[in-house]
Specification:
alpha/beta, two-stranded antiparallel ribbon, 15 helices, 36% helix, 12% strand, binds S-adenosylmethionine, binds iron/sulfur cluster
Amino acid sequence: MTERERWPLPDKVAGYGRRDEFDRARKEAGQWVFWHDRVQLVLAGRYDEVKPLHVELSPTYLCNFACRWCSCRSAREEWSDADVFSHPRATPLTVIRDTKLDRVLTNLAEHKVGIMWVGGEPTMNPLLYPAAVKADRLGLSQCLFTNGSLLNAERAAALFDANLVFIRVSLNAVTGDVHAKYHDYDPRRNFGSRVLQNLAELARMRSERRSGTLVGVSVVVDEGNIGDLEPTARYLAQLCESQGSGGIDYAIFRPAFPFYTAQIDIRNDTLDKFLSVVGPGAPLRQALVDSGIDVVVPDQSANPAPPAERDDRGCIAAGLFGEVTPNGDMVACSDRYGNPDYFIGNVAEASIDDLWAGERRQSVLQLARETACYQTYCPSNGRGFFFNRLFREIERLRADGRMDEVRIWIDDLRAVLPTPTHSFFI
Ligand SMILES: C[S@@+](CC[C@H](N)C(=O)[O-])C[C@H]1O[C@@H](n2cnc3c(N)ncnc32)[C@H](O)[C@@H]1O
Ligand code: SF4
Ligand code: SF4
C-alpha cells in the first residue's frame, strides 16, 4: 500500500495536512465519526435529533471535600463519611436512591448511552457499586471520577469487577497539609494519606490485570498546589516503578479552569511554572513516561481556544453528551453543571426517545439560542464548545455546496483513526 500524501485533520473539517501534522493532532477529537447514526444526522443538518454517546451521572451532589476551585463543591459542614442518606443535606435532589437509579439505567440502556460516574463525590453513595455491576450487565460502557478518599480494597475490587473503562483518581497533591488545604477539609480527617493508600491499591490491582479497567490520575493546578506539583509527579513515577510498571495507565495535568462560580488562583506565572514541570521537554515529564505513565497535558493548557463565532444558530452540539442529576433530571448537555433551566425532563420517568421528542427539550434549545449560550457561557475547554465549532464549520461548507468534501473527510478519518470502544476520551 502506498503511503497517503494527505492526512485528514480530526479538528478541522475537510482539512488535511502532512503525516507529522496528523501525528501531532489529538486523535480522539475525530472519533465521533465512528458513530454512524449520529454522523448521518449531522450530515443531514438534523442536530436536534442527536442522542448522547454518554452522560455524566451523579449518584450524589454531596462531597466530603469542598475544593474552592470546583464548581460542584457543596459540603462545607462537619461531615462523617459513614452514611450519605443521613447527611443533613440529603434530599432527592442531592442523593439518588435505588428505584430511581435502576430506572435511569434501564432508560439509558435502551440507547446504549455510556455513563461517566461523577458528582459531587460519586463513591459517597454506596449504590454506586451495585449500579456499576448492573450497568455492566446492561452492556453500558462506564468510567468513574473520584477523589479517591473513600475507596477501600473491597470497593476497588467491585469497580474492577464491573469492568469500568477507567477509574480516575483526582490526586492534585501528595503532601498532607497541601492536600487538606487544597481540598478544604479538616486535616485531622487525614484524607490525604487515605487517597495515597487507595491509589496504591488500585495500581496494585491494575498491574495484576484484574480486568481491563485503566487507572488514571488527574492533577488540577493553581497557586494552591503548584508547589506540590513536582513532589506529586515524582510520587507517581516512583509508585509505578515500585509496581514494576503498568500500575497507572495515564496522568492528566491541567491548570484549574475558570468555570462559573469556581474560585481559582491562577497568576501571571502559574502557567509557566506548570509547564516547567509537566510541559513538553520537562525532565520530570520524561521520568513519568519512562515509568510507564501516559502523560496528558491538554492543548488548551498552553493555547486557550479561540473565541466562539458570533451567529444566531444557537447550540448545535447539545445532545451529543448529557448530564443526569441525582434526581434523574436530564440536562440538555454536559456543560451546564446541573442548571435547572437546562433540564429537558426526568430520565427515571420517561424514555430518552420521549425526552428528545418532548416540548421541554425544544424550549431549552430555544433558551440556549436566545441567550447565546455558546457565545457567552459555554466552557471553552468542554465538548459542547468543541462540537459547536466543528459543526459550524460543516454548516459553512454546506452553505458553499461543499458537503462532498465533508463526506470524504469523514471517510478518511474512519480509515486512519483508531476505532474507539467508548466515547469517554472524545
Ligand atoms: C467535579 S469532579 C467530580 C468527581 C470527584 N469528586 C473528583 O474530584 O474527581 C470531576 C473532575 O472535575 C475536575 N474539576 C473540578 N473543578 C475544576 C476546575 N475548576 N478546573 C479543572 N478541573 C476541575 C476535578 O478535578 C475532577 O477531575
Ligand atoms: S473536585 Fe471533586 S472532590 Fe473537589 S469539591 Fe469538586 S466534587 Fe468534591
Ligand atoms: S452552548 Fe455549550 S453550555 Fe450551552 S447548551 Fe450548548 S453545549 Fe451546553
